[in-house]
Amino acid sequence: MTVRAVVGRIGFYVLIALITAFMAIPVLWLLFAPFDRTPSLSTSLPEWTWQNFTGLLANPYALTSLGNSVLLALGSMVLVTVLGALAAYALSRVRIPGRDGLLYALLLLSSIVTGTAAMVPIFLLMFELNLIDSQLGVVLVLSGGLLPAAIFILKDFMDGTPRSYEESARVFGAGPLQILRDIVLPVVRPGIATIAVWTVVNVWGNFLTPFILLRSPEKSPAAVVLYTFYTEGGQANLGLISAFSLLYSIPVVAMYVFVNRRYGFRFHGGIKR
Amino acid sequence: MALATSPPADLAPPRDVATDAAGLGRVRASAFVAPGLALVAIFLVFPALWTLYLGLTNYRLTGIAAARPKFVGLDNYATALGDQEFLNALWLTLLYVLGSAVIGQTILGFVLAWTMRTVHRTVRTVVESLVMLAWILPSSVVAFLWIAMLDRDSGTLNALLGTPGMAWLIDHPLLSIVVFNTWRGTAFSMLLFSAALGAVPPSQLETARMAGASGWQQLRDVVFPHIRGHILTNLLLISLWTFNDFSPYLITAGGPDNRSETLPIFVYQTAIFDGQLGFGTAISLLMLLINLVLAVVYLRLLRERRS
User: Fold this and answer.
1) I need a labelling partner for B31 at 20 to 30 A (CA). Which of A114, A211, B110, B115 fits?
2) What confidence tens digit (pLDDT) does each residue in B65-106 have?
């Protein structure tokens, strides 16, 4: 090896080390502070304790808000997967006039009408519908935003299932809903699972929609309650914030690990699937 | 000759009879599609169309203008284009997109995708997991991690750099959110570029290496021509997302003195916080238009690649 190559190699690993440090250092706090007897903002090895987590139980909003997050996430997941699968199936099998234009327009719309660009009319709409401070309202808004992409992706999955299965089921007298339930759904299960996980992760982390639409803290999901923990006046309770952050993060990390193990988390061909 | 293979016209099935494999027929198919479309129509299409009208009124959340909004024509747009705070927000948003998406995430994502091909598997797993972790953690959590990191008195960054008392979030708010968003969003570019690099024929790289091309020359002459489409896709998508990103609000709330107030935060402050719904909607519509341009370019590109 020439000197130049050695220097190049060292430079290469220094670069990787720097990037790793950049990515790792902010997260360390999340790993150490929840278990520290006297948590501070700086990252340091903890003096081991569970007291931050027991403190969490005493807080009136912490656990309720996690329950609310579960409620919002599951509600949206059911709506998006059921309505998305029904629509995708019909669009995949029947040539409804203007189908391709419709799908294209839906996809375009869902990528431009984002939470922030549409927050004012959505806020007003919910105001008029009397759905301010209602969890149902949050679920409806979030599902409406996620559905177009869900239909688009599910239709791709449905297009890939062989039609001969359905034809033979029909010969034996199965109705359309029965065919959907017993034949199509089992075949496209990976697609449904992808959409379900994707919906849950999106809703679980969403801050803006519940922040605008919900008023009472006992209805707010963890994303909003965590924010109020660190912005409300007085000395921030770092033990509470760190323990709560960790607890709130675990489900999405667990889901990521699960999906990654099961299906592999890679792009194929180059677009997010 | 193609005509001979298609069925004669009189054998074509009449309308309204199921012609599809599942025996759905158009009526039932429409019933399957309807609930989903209704939800999308009410909570996505309608709000978007409503902005067209609301932006032309002086609608407010409270007071006289709430009960009887007046039609004010293009006044809101005229006000916006002359409003210092709006122009400031627009400028900051452009810098934010340029700094964190176009420069930060794209370059870091590419460097990661390029370097991770040749390192040991363990290193790759560790680095990629960290990058993914930053992407999947909820934004309220990530925001607080960066508040802790950049804190003036006991932040980890000051301890590392030996700059005690440096108030990053107050002295350099825009830089802080740019670094934050780079950290948070690099995963997408990394994933997309590693998929793209996987499609570059190894034989071409090998040939270039044999011919004595340096690393940079290989990149410029072999890799970039292959992944140009991916770079464009990546740039458009992350620009769109970053442009609409509300998470800087969680760190700086737009402050101090609006120095990190990007458009989403400006809309929130104007419309929801101050209650100037008409004016806020006008700004939203301008945002929608910018989104529309980005999305149309992207979808055009996607269609061309598919066909």
Assistant:
1) A114
2) 676 777 887 888 888 888 888 999 999 999 999 999 999 999
Specify whether the CB–CB gap between A193 and A157 falls below 8 A.
Answer: no
**Residue B197 corresponds to which tokens in the numbers above?**
């690099």
Q: How far is B103 from chain A (nearest CA, A)?
A: 15
Name, in order, each residue with C-beta under 8 angstroms of B227's C-beta and a sequence gap of 6 or more: B193, B196, B197, B199, B200
Residue given tokens 């930060």 in the structure block: B104
**Complete domains list, chain A, with CATH:** 3-49 (no CATH), 62-262 (1.10.3720.10)
CA-nearest residue of chain A to B146? A26
Q: CA-to-CA distance for B45 and A121, rounded, in angstroms?
A: 11
**Partner-chain residue, chosen from B155, B244, B264, that has the shortest CB–CB distance to A42:** B155
Inter-chain residue contact B141 with A226, CB threshold 8 Å:
yes
The pTM score is 0.85
- Per residue in A241-266, pLDDT (tens digit) is 888 999 999 999 998 888 878 776 55
Contacts of A119 in chain B (CB under 8 A): 264, 267-268, 271-272, 284
Secondary-structure class of domain B75-306 per CATH: mainly alpha
